[in-house]
Amino acid sequence: MSSIDIRQQLAHLPLFHQLSPEQLSELAGHGKTLRVDKGETLFRRGDACDGMYAVVYGKVKLTLMSPQGVEKVMEIIHPGQSFAEAVMFLGKPMPVEAQTLEDSLLLHIGAAGIFQILAADPNFARNMLAGMSMRLHGMVRDVERYSLESALQRVIGYLLQQLDAGADQPATLTLEANKNLIASRLNLTPETFSRVLQQLAKAGLAEVNGREIRLSDPAALSRYGLDAG
Amino acid sequence: MSSIDIRQQLAHLPLFHQLSPEQLSELAGHGKTLRVDKGETLFRRGDACDGMYAVVYGKVKLTLMSPQGVEKVMEIIHPGQSFAEAVMFLGKPMPVEAQTLEDSLLLHIGAAGIFQILAADPNFARNMLAGMSMRLHGMVRDVERYSLESALQRVIGYLLQQLDAGADQPATLTLEANKNLIASRLNLTPETFSRVLQQLAKAGLAEVNGREIRLSDPAALSRYGLDAG
DNA sequence: CGGACGGTTGAGTCTCGTCAATAAGCGTGG
DNA sequence: CCACGCTTATTGACGAGACTCAACCGTCCG
After folding, report:
1. Which structural domain, as residue segments, surrounds residue B216?
2. What is d(CA A45, CA A48) in angstroms, rounded to the nearest whole number?
3. For B160-206, what is each residue's pLDDT tens digit?
4. Residues A132, B136: C-beta atoms closer than 8 Å
5. What is the rounded average pLDDT for all residues in chain B?
6. Could you tell me if A114 and A200 lie in one domain?
7. Paired strand residues for B75
8. CB-side neighbour CA atoms (13 Å) of B173
9. Does residue A173 share a domain with residue A135?
10. Is A188's CB less than 7 Å from nucleic acid strand C?
11. Same domain as A142, residue A177
């Protein structure tokens, strides 16, 4: 794949939107496209990190492994999003494992390229800082969930978050992955996740149909978490 | 307090180490020193964020509050460290509450100052990115703890982390705050934390004396967590 | 002295995870 | 087209780990 193509892919990523044509070209010189089949491992915990990744299409899961071999999903990366930027800056080994959930097209951008643009373009630095801040913010939310909320509340919170904010009317959403992965993401066993969804269904708040979930009354759902929590 | 003093305080902070004298002066113009008594609240969740903070001396805790009013300690900030940088970039309201644990001297640096330096100095941008990356890395560790480890393992992990890395000999450490706060930090109740420490004492692995804890054999302690998990 | 605070200990409860059995989809290949 | 295996999902019975509630102790401080 030529570097022209890489350039175009880069240009579509939010992180790189404001870069000049020259900067894009420069960056493209440090980039590689990767076509990866579903289920492939990109890197494991402990691997050296020589750059960051971005998803053009497909999905990638970032996971932790317990000593007993239980997998915990940290994040599910969607098209347009990137990952491993933070590790790249620290020069530490990867703290998580990355695996594709679907056949995917990824970009890998070497650290050198990023550092060059960074040195030249203050706006880019701000963009990266903003991106990293969002990550951090998301993690704070996660820790908050795990620490303070019950299984029921975590599921409700997740469902509401999947909705476009401010939806006060009935709405339908599609789970971003299979239920096992979502459960892990929420730090639940698949069994518990299933039971909670049933509970919501019986309470008349949700209608579950495979990965499709219809929420008849988001506001009521939100309240339900507080009482029955 | 004059801006000269602020300049000197800023110069001592790791985050600003590599700034030029002129940049320090500029930054100082946007900074204020704050003397804060123990137990004072700096800001609450939801407050607007107009800049970042750094601790010169004293300690600050960042906490979350559950709807039921239970407090969860996210982080304990020590001298030389900073906080709220990430929120500043997002322009979002504060996601946590900040309170001093001791009489403290803090610096508050307005967002405008940071953005100016950022635009002018690529090295500063890299420093901030590195700082943010470390934060993120720490959060990953936390999530890992909360998700995959038992109470016993969390306590052991915490104790070992407090040791200077690679201590294979008996060592003594002092808890950075009272046991209630540490317990919260580890996502445990004070009762559970106390019980776990007793368990370690009975196993001959730790000797608890108020906030002083002596670990007779860190390596054995590490192993103990895996078996008795 | 009395009270607040920090810490420990015990007894009971409950949420959630574990284990196990059973469906229900789904792609493959005969 | 259906049988087969594999993954995904559901449901039940059971158990364990951590939280809750409560009593109690030591110490510091007004």
Report:
1. 147-228
2. 9
3. 999 877 668 899 999 999 999 999 999 999 999 999 999 999 999 99
4. yes
5. 92
6. no
7. B62
8. 20
9. no
10. yes
11. no
